[in-house]
């Protein structure tokens, strides 16, 4: 494995799992909670969760999960588009519950809440539960805040992103699978101008993107162009934010060229993820940048609409095609966030252990299969090699798919997907780990970042969009960077530099 820049990047989307508390009553039948409470007793759990699909699931899978975990589970769903606002509001008003899923760990409100003592520190209890005990020391350290683990880490692959391209369209316009950024631009141009769907109309674009500079196209394309993963650290410990690098500007120029020439959907800055995927599946564009495993879902969404869709997955694009230039950002160090437990709702160790057992049980093979594939012979079939095939796609999308973001662990299970696209994405994601660049500030603390980081990031996010859309020039973007520094960014830099030096001792 190539040498990877050391540690931190946990950004990811902000799911909020919430379990209601019952005042001073236990969830195990109404008696007062005490140190002798049975950790295996029936419990009631409400779960405020993030919804990445168009509609929430029916109760079919929930009832099966309840049987497996000996718990009554009540879900409330928050649309992905409003997740950050909702979690910030919940933290500010202390309107939480037993479990809160926090996935945007660099959000200043989230980070401050974790460090404030609002949530239980869980590491002392993990080894009491078989599945939680398997969480590696590296994962525990990576998911810790100021050296303490305030929740169960969502365990994910290290670097999942890449480029999904319409192979049938490549064949139609006579282009090979791109290996360089220029070749990718040529594909985007041809998909826009050469009628790849053959309907005689100029109604397609190259890229279909969404309003997300991290999990949309921007950060992955930037990674291919050498942009550091949030921060760059020099040999003498000097820290430079990614947006203050030449590579970041080159990435903005690349995106601006796509936008100016119509090679990307013109409404990308306001497009939601669900709309992005639907439009791609409908044949409106031929390039999708995101998690490589999204390819399977895109192909399934296209059934009955674009039945001739043929996809190719690409994870080795570089500026010039040189293997030595190959790298991909690792957004979360294999951590997708935390399942955290607020002390205001989980009153004592007995309640905490019962909730931890619930999470532990979600990581069993059978429960993972339920939340991933559904019910055997209803949603999927499985062969002698534990390869699962969905047999009722519509039913699976309605009843199972919304649970994907609720799985505490996504790797290491016997059951696996038989779909060729999923198998290919798994292979490329595993390969990505060899080229992954981590955030060197992941394990470092900056008080200014904790208190102002989210607000300061908005300065850069707004300026990046404005530059791509042609509303400001390079001087205007540089002014925004200086504004970031004057408003607290310079303090973040110096605090990270001090923390970096301290960590080296």
Structure characteristics:
alpha/beta; 39% helix; 3-stranded antiparallel beta sheet
Describe this structure as you would to a colleague.
By secondary structure, the chain is an alpha/beta fold. 39% of the residues lie in helices and 14% in strands. It has 18 helices and 16 strands. The protein has helices spanning 60-69, 83-93, 108-115, 123-126, 130-133, 137-142, 167-173, 181-193, 217-224, 246-260, 273-281, 294-301, 349-362, 365-372, 393-399, 420-432, 447-468, 474-504; strands at 43-51, 71-79, 100-102, 152-155, 161-166, 205-207, 231-233, 239-241, 285-291, 311-314, 328-329, 335-340, 380-382, 387-390, 416-417, 436-437. Strands 6-9-5-10 form a 4-stranded mixed beta sheet. Strands 3-12-4 form a 3-stranded antiparallel beta sheet. A hairpin with a 5-residue loop joins strand 7 (231-233) and strand 8 (239-241). Helix 3 (108-115) runs antiparallel to helix 17 (447-468). It is globular.
Layout of strands and helices, then pairs:
Elements (H helix, E strand, L loop, with lengths): L42 E9 L8 H10 L1 E9 L3 H11 L6 E3 L5 H8 L7 H4 L3 H4 L3 H6 L9 E4 L5 E6 H7 L7 H13 L11 E3 L9 H8 L6 E3 L5 E3 L4 H15 L12 H9 L3 E7 L2 H8 L9 E4 L13 E2 L5 E6 L8 H14 L2 H8 L7 E3 L4 E4 L2 H7 L16 E2 L2 H13 L3 E2 L9 H22 L5 H31 L1
